[in-house]
Write a structure and sequence with these properties.
Number of domains: 2
Structural class: alpha+beta
Order of helices and strands: EEHEHHEEEEEEHEHHEHHEHEEHEE
Organism: Tenacibaculum lutimaris
Pfam family, one: NA37
Helix content: 25-40%
Number of strands: 16
Radius of gyration: 26 Å
Shape: globular
GO cellular component, one term: nucleoid
Protein name: Nucleoid associated protein NdpA
Strand content: 25-35%
Distance between the termini: 36 Å
InterPro entries: Nucleoid_associated_NdpA (IPR007358)
């Protein structure tokens, strides 16, 4: 989603956020971080690398006026006035706003890094970004030290550079829907806390969202309707055919999809009924026509479960990218002598 080849951190500050539920107190820095070369070279990729794999973006939301969204206002002020004083003041406001969302004992305390980036590349354009990162977990590591004429070891806690817990980038870039926001959350113990309550953002209304919603609907339809009604093999066939349709078409037409995927009218009716159920249950609109997002297709198809698990401790895994494999090379039957069902698998060589 972004490129960081020419990105630099121009401002950075670290605070500590407490838990409001437990009546904790935040701790604030009064000055910016002074990096040495080694720490800077470690911190920059640690903060930004996770966003290179992000496929979807968000936009700020608010029930009355999006300009009243706290994070939207603080980041906008920083973009308009890039002085250190404004940056430090609003970095504290950001931490206080995060603190106000910790209404559960499960919300973890931690370090909050607020940074101002220059030279981030988004859609082939260089721009600035305000980054907010929460470090929730720390790891144990050994530290050696010299004591008189020998060396000893002590266990200390520190931040691992392998994984960022939570983070967002507010880009100084917007479209008709508003300011572009990117987010990562690797500790999703409370899905509402970071995305909904703190950032108050929603997915951008684009091909990424439309593709995701449609594929999620198909996955749930296969699990809730096809699998119990027609069996696991038919479920795998449907998922593989769905992936194949998305791969072969640059855009999805809902009616054409039904005609190509389903042979019988009753199956089309079941799909139509489930579409309405899914929209109502999830409060989403499934578009009848939209362009396919290849990056979202790649991500979502990995969630499709095409394994057939048998009670005899045998599993058959069907490739979701091979829509004809199950129908052509897998047969189901019943053995009268053993009084058991069976699958017959055809193949030429083992791999």
């Amino acid at each position: 989603m972004i490129k960081r080849t020419r990105t630099e951190i121009s401002k950075c500050i670290i605070h500590k956020v407490a838990n409001k539920y437990n009546s904790g107190q935040n701790a604030f820095s009064e000055s910016l971080v002074r990096f040495d070369e080694e720490s800077y070279e470690l911190l920059l990729p640690f903060l930004l690398k996770p966003f290179g794999a992000v496929t979807q973006s968000y936009r700020f939301s608010h029930h009355a006026d999006v300009r009243l969204n706290e994070i939207n206002k603080y980041s906008s002020d920083i973009f308009e006035d890039d002085s250190n004083e404004v940056f430090i003041e609003h970095s504290k406001n950001i931490v206080n706003h995060l603190y106000e969302q910790s209404n559960s004992a499960n919300i973890k305390t931690g370090d909050v890094i607020v940074a101002y980036f220059e030279g981030i590349e988004y859609k082939d354009v260089l721009t600035e970004a305000v980054g907010i990162f929460k470090i929730e977990s720390k790891v144990d590591f050994f530290q050696t030290y010299q004591d008189d004429d020998s060396f000893d070891v002590v266990v200390q806690k520190g931040i691992s550079t392998k994984r960022l817990d939570k983070g967002c980038l507010i880009l100084n870039s917007s479209d008709t829907e508003g300011t572009v926001v990117l987010s990562v959350d690797n500790n999703q113990y409370d899905a509402q806390y970071w995305i909904k309550n703190f950032l108050s953002v929603k997915y951008a209304d684009d091909r990424n969202l439309h593709t995701q919603n449609y594929l999620e609907m198909c996955k749930e339809f296969s699990e809730e309707v096809i699998k119990p009604e027609f069996g696991k093999q038919e479920q795998s066939n449907f998922l593989a055919n769905t992936v194949d349709y998305f791969k072969e078409h640059e855009s999805v037409d809902y009616h054409n999809f039904k005609d190509e995927i389903f042979e019988e009218t009753k199956h089309k009716d079941l799909f139509e009924d489930y579409k309405q159920h899914f929209e109502k249950l999830n409060d989403v609109l499934i578009r009848n026509n939209f362009e396919v997002s290849d990056v979202v297709l790649k991500k979502e198809k990995s969630k499709f479960k095409t394994e057939i698990k048998l009670d005899t401790n045998i599993q058959i895994k069907i490739d979701v990218d091979a829509p004809d494999a199950s129908a052509e090379y897998l047969e189901q039957g019943y053995d009268e002598e053993k009084k058991m069902k069976f699958y017959k698998v055809y193949y030429n060589t083992e791999k």
